[in-house]
Write a structure and sequence with these properties.
It is a single chain. The protein has helices at 2-20, 31-34, 43-50, 60-82, 125-130, 134-138, 143-158, 187-206, 217-220, 226-229, 244-274, and strands at residues 29-30, 86-88, 92-96, 101-105, 107-111, 114-123, 163-170, 176-182, 279-283, 286-296, 306-316. It is an alpha+beta fold and 325 residues long. The chain has 2 domains: 14-229, Lambda Exonuclease, Chain A, CATH 3.90.320.10; 275-316, no CATH class. The strands form 3 sheets. Strands 2-5-6-7-8 form a 5-stranded mixed beta sheet. Strands 1-4-3 form a 3-stranded mixed beta sheet. A 3-stranded antiparallel beta sheet has the order 9-10-11, with no helix packed on it. The chain is globular and about 70 Å long. The model is unreliable at 297-302 and 320-325 (pLDDT under 50).
């Protein structure tokens, strides 16, 4: 009886979430989609506008992520206000008519008389830890993550703001991270998005589509327009290797991937914490030591200058368990 009830609840919940998914006409270059890193340039955005009705519907699980993101966004804005910060212009519609660019800015924070545009993103614990800077996001293996800075850069241009802030929230423990974004430090990228919008508009006016490029799994495999785009696969068929030892090694490698990524994340976080000051610290059975190593300063033109680089190490105590006779 209990099993039947649990299955019924889950089925109805998934059905409810599936019912919340929809497809709507795309009449403009929306900021979130314009920044999507399509390897074929304007093709993704053009197809989004021309063939929106053929886009893949979000799965119930993906819709759950979208809905959770909206809940987390509202929670962060509420907490910021209760923390004494002045939150203004929530969910403001913005438009750049010249390039038919539109979007919805999450909010602005009023700070020393300046309204700072902010975008809020809720992330899984791993993604939250792995993406600590704009550079991390722009180099991410997740295409939607690469689009976040571009989305905010568009909002900075649309609101005539020089600086903005990406606020990311760890959905597991509620921690937030505030990442500053300066328009002029990323002006070339911001301007490339405007040129991309111009190209999209030209294709829409001419009823043409940019050519496809070869399939790239990291982005094409996650694209809602994949079934319309149908990018070509590799031109030559792959070699098939019959090697059981190789297959076993590949499977073992895959099983260790998550542990390796977790190690790298923890190692980076811990070293960031202790690289500021030299010295030795003890924590339980661990010795944490920070040394300064003098290295030549790397520049385009060598000058002989040097720089102190902090090296952090972690070692366990060496225990002696030998006893007397």
């Amino acid at each position: 009886m209990a099993q039947m009830l649990s299955e019924t609840i889950l089925a109805q919940y998934r059905q409810y979430k599936a019912g919340r998914s929809d497809r709507r006409p795309v009449r403009s270059n929306t900021a979130s989609q314009l920044a999507y890193p399509c390897p074929a340039g304007a093709r993704y955005m053009v197809l989004k506008r021309q063939r929106w009705e053929a886009a893949e519907m979000p799965s119930p699980e993906l819709q759950m992520i979208y809905d959770e993101g909206r809940l987390q966004e509202a929670a962060v804005l509420r907490d910021l206000a209760e923390a004494g910060l002045t939150v203004i212009e929530q969910q403001t519609a913005v438009e750049w008519r010249q390039y038919n660019i539109t979007g919805h800015l999450d909010a602005k924070l009023l700070w020393n008389g300046t309204a700072v545009p902010i975008e809020i993103k809720s992330l899984s614990p791993y993604s939250w830890q792995a993406h600590q800077s704009v550079a991390d996001m722009l180099d991410s293996k997740y295409p939607w993550m690469r689009g976040y800075p571009g989305q905010l850069l568009i909002y900075l241009m649309l609101t005539n703001a020089e600086v903005g802030m990406l606020i990311t929230k760890n959905k597991a423990n509620g921690q937030i991270r505030c990442i500053d974004l300066n328009l002029y430090e990323h002006l070339a990228y911001a301007e490339s998005l405007v040129r991309l919008a111009e190209e999209v508009n030209q294709h829409i006016a001419a009823d043409t589509v940019p050519p496809a490029v070869e399939y790239q799994d990291w982005v094409c495999g996650r694209c809602s327009m994949f079934n319309v785009c149908t990018p070509p696969m590799a031109s030559t068929p792959p070699d098939v290797i019959e090697d059981s030892e190789l297959l076993e090694a590949l499977d073992e490698r895959a099983s260790l991937e998550a542990a390796r990524k977790r190690y790298e994340t923890l190692d980076k976080t811990l070293k960031e914490r202790f690289k500021g000051n030299g010295g030795v610290r003890l924590c339980g059975e661990w010795v944490i030591e920070t040394k300064l190593s003098t290295r030549k300063k790397m520049e385009y033109v060598p000058t002989g200058e040097t720089i102190d680089v902090p090296l952090v190490s972690f070692k366990r105590y060496a225990h002696s368990d030998s006893g007397g006779e």
